Amino acid sequence: MKKDSKQLLFENMKKINPEFILKEDYMQEVAQPKPTRLDPITRKRVMKDLSAMPDYFVGIPIEEIDAVLNKNGLLLLQEDNTPWDGLFTGAEGHAQIAIGYLNTKTQVNGLDSYTPIENSMLIMTWYKMQSGKYEIVTYLS
To answer: How far is CA 45 from the centre of its chain?
Structure first.
């Protein structure tokens, strides 16, 4: 039986990278990238989801931002590559937070650790307006 080109490509990619998978999302098949690089399709999906969020919030919506990342297989990371945990203060500010793939989880000294993505970070700025609401701008670098 003759194999089609998709099947041959899949088998060859599996030889190169045993963790290779095919995603059925967006009506096309794409290879999952190396864990340390953010692929353009995931970046596009995250940016689309982030841009769909409102611009103004009562507080800084880090949980909602993290949920967008999680939905796309990513998470926010601390400097030690453990899941991000923190808070933001001040009427205005700027943060750059590392991100990683959820599927890179390992245990280091009893803590969950993830491989950080080298070519992208979450960039977030906030400004508290006179109304008391925060204007939030987020994107992936």
So the answer is: 10
Pairing of strands 116-128, 134-140: antiparallel
Which residue range is the domain that position 114 belongs to?
A: 35-140
39 and 26 co-located in one domain = no
Q: Is the domain of 43 the same as that of 81?
A: yes
Check residue 21 and give its pLDDT: 55
Per residue in 27-48, pLDDT tens? 333 334 445 899 999 999 999 9
Same domain, 84 and 106: yes
Length of the chain: 141
Pairwise CA distance, residues 100 & 123, whole Å: 14
Q: What is the DSSP string of 78-137?
A: -TTSSBP-----SSEEEEEEEEEEGGG-EEETTEEE-PEEEEEEEEEEEEE-TTSPEEEE
| Per-residue DSSP letter, 41 | H
pLDDT band, very low/low/confident/very high, at 108 (cuts 50, 70, 90): confident
